[in-house]
């Protein structure tokens, strides 16, 4: 089981840089990078909610389950 993080895809669709997203949701660019690369062991619902709010998307647009 693997969870794939498609945050880069959503950022590209919204023509937004990681730095801008990090500033708008209130986390560091380092923590956003850890999330984007799939190295994070978890994500707070509060953070996921903020990302979805800023990118105008659903959690399923960012997170994908693969076998």
Proportion of residues in extended strands: 5-15%
Mean pLDDT equals 94
* CATH C-level class: Mainly Alpha
Number of domains: 1
Rg value: 11 Å
Uncertain segments: none
Task: Quickly give the structural class.
Answer: mainly alpha
Total beta-strand segments: 2
Q: Strands of the largest sheet, in order across it?
A: 1-2
> In the CATH scheme, what's the topology name?
434 Repressor (Amino-terminal Domain)
Q: What is the CATH homologous superfamily assignment?
A: lambda repressor-like DNA-binding domains
Assembly of the depicted chains: single chain
Shape designation: globular
What is the share of helical residues? Answer: 55-70%
H/E topology pattern: EHHHHHE
Tell me the major beta sheet: 2 strands, antiparallel
Name a few traits of the molecule.
67 residues, mainly alpha, 434 Repressor (Amino-terminal Domain), two-stranded antiparallel ribbon, 5 helices, globular, Cro/C1-type_HTH, Lambda_DNA-bd_dom_sf, Helix-turn-helix transcriptional regulator
Tell me what you see in this structure.
The chain is mainly alpha-helical and 67 residues long. It has one domain: 434 Repressor (Amino-terminal Domain), CATH 1.10.260.40. It is 57% helix and 12% strand. It has helices spanning 7-13, 18-25, 29-36, 45-55, 59-62; strands at residues 2-5, 63-66. Helix 2 (18-25) packs across helix 3 (29-36). It is globular. Pfam families: HTH_26 (PF13443). Residues 13-62 form the HTH cro/C1-type domain. This is Helix-turn-helix transcriptional regulator.
Short structural description:
The protein is mainly α and 67 residues long. It contains 5 helices and 2 strands. 57% of the residues lie in helices and 12% in strands.
């Amino acid at each position: 089981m693997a969870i794939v993080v498609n945050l880069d895809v959503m950022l590209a669709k919204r023509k937004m840089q990681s730095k801008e997203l990090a500033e708008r949701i209130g986390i560091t660019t380092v923590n956003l990078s850890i999330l984007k690369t799939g190295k994070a062991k978890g994500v707070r619902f509060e953070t996921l909610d903020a990302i979805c709010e800023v990118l105008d998307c659903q959690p399923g647009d960012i997170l994908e389950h693969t076998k």
